[in-house]
Write a structure and sequence with these properties.
single chain; alpha/beta; Arc Repressor Mutant, subunit A; D-Maltodextrin-Binding Protein, domain 2; 3 domains; two-stranded antiparallel sheet; 10 helices; about 40% helix
């Protein structure tokens, strides 16, 4: 197989365009800040590499050959596209453009992410965010497989190949039907849960572990036959007096508000929370796009969600 010829260098293309624009070797050399012999040498090397005569020397200056005119248009395009590539790389380094593939669990993403996405759109309009949600185990597996760059999930998360960062602690409330005996209480203690039927999501969700632990520690009864597949499903079962459950603060802010709410959310005395954070593959390092997402999330937690959740950067 024959060895391909050496390709022209970017320097040679820049010098050739400068010569075509200036029309004289002396003037082009001055514009480029080099000597005239050096410019002549580079143009000759370009002609040799392309096996084309590009420039005719005249008494009053230079004239491009027909081949030179064709090469000039291509050289301008190559230089322009290269400048665009460098500018794009700088933007990616700065984290102001590019695509971030994000996934979240259904108990967090729909109630936390919209404000973060709006913040990113306003501050970095060139940043494209692809957001999906799915069960916790699925989004972690997809993250490790490279289908996502970042996930928002409940912590802790046992995965040695992942980097983790805490975002906030989210208060959990006991949700009961409007006519439940505990619905009128301003606060409840854990001792109020003894004998109470507690509903939960299926065991694939971090919230299930929190509810199961609470039931075990307080003497409440975990009703596994009524496991829900979403917070909405849990709320609806609670509204029908099938039991009580735990609902997170941002979900309550979004779905359990106003006098016409179908359930009542009662806070725990002393508080009860879950930890929400992000994870990404350790092999990624910490790209600027992830830094920009974390900064936006921190801003939203400190402003839009202030008083609803407890900021806990880690």
């Amino acid at each position: 197989m024959p060895t391909p010829p050496d390709l022209p260098s970017m320097r040679q293309l820049r010098y050739f365009v400068a010569l075509a624009d200036a029309g004289q070797y002396r003037r082009a050399a001055e514009r480029m800040g080099i000597s005239q012999p050096s410019l002549s040498l580079q143009i000759s090397a370009l002609e040799e590499r392309l096996a084309l005569r590009l420039v005719e020397r005249r008494r009053g200056g230079t004239l491009l050959t027909p081949a030179g005119r064709e090469v000039l248009s291509r050289a301008r395009l190559i230089l322009s596209q290269t400048e665009d590539l460098v500018a794009q790389a700088h933007s990616l380094t700065a984290g102001v453009t590019g695509t971030l593939r994000l996934a979240s669990t259904p108990t967090i993403g729909p109630y936390m992410l919209p404000a973060v996405v709006r913040h990113l759109h306003e501050t970095h309009p060139g940043l494209r965010l692809i957001a999906r949600d799915g069960p916790p185990r699925e989004v972690v597996e997809d993250l490790l497989a490279g289908q996502h760059d970042l996930i928002v999930t409940q912590l802790p998360l046992a995965a040695g190949d992942l980097s983790l960062r805490r975002l906030y602690r989210e208060p959990l409330f006991l949700a009961v039907a409007r006519d439940h005996p505990l619905a009128s209480r301003a606060q409840i203690g854990r001792d109020d849960l003894a004998g109470l039927d507690l509903l939960s999501l299926n065991p694939g969700y971090g919230l299930h572990d929190v509810i199961a632990t609470l039931a075990r520690d307080t003497g409440a009864r975990l009703q596994s036959e009524y496991e829900g597949t979403s917070l909405d499903a849990l709320r609806q079962m609670v509204a029908m007096n099938m039991g009580a459950t735990l609902l997170p603060a941002l979900y309550i802010r979004s779905e359990v508000a106003g006098a016409d709410a179908d359930v009542v959310a009662v806070p725990f005395r002393g508080g009860m929370t879950r930890m929400v954070g992000v994870a990404w593959r350790r092999s990624l390092g910490k790209p600027r796009l992830i830094d920009q997402f974390l900064a936006a999330a921190d801003d939203v937690v400190a402003t839009a969600y202030k008083g609803r959740v407890i900021q806990d950067r880690g």
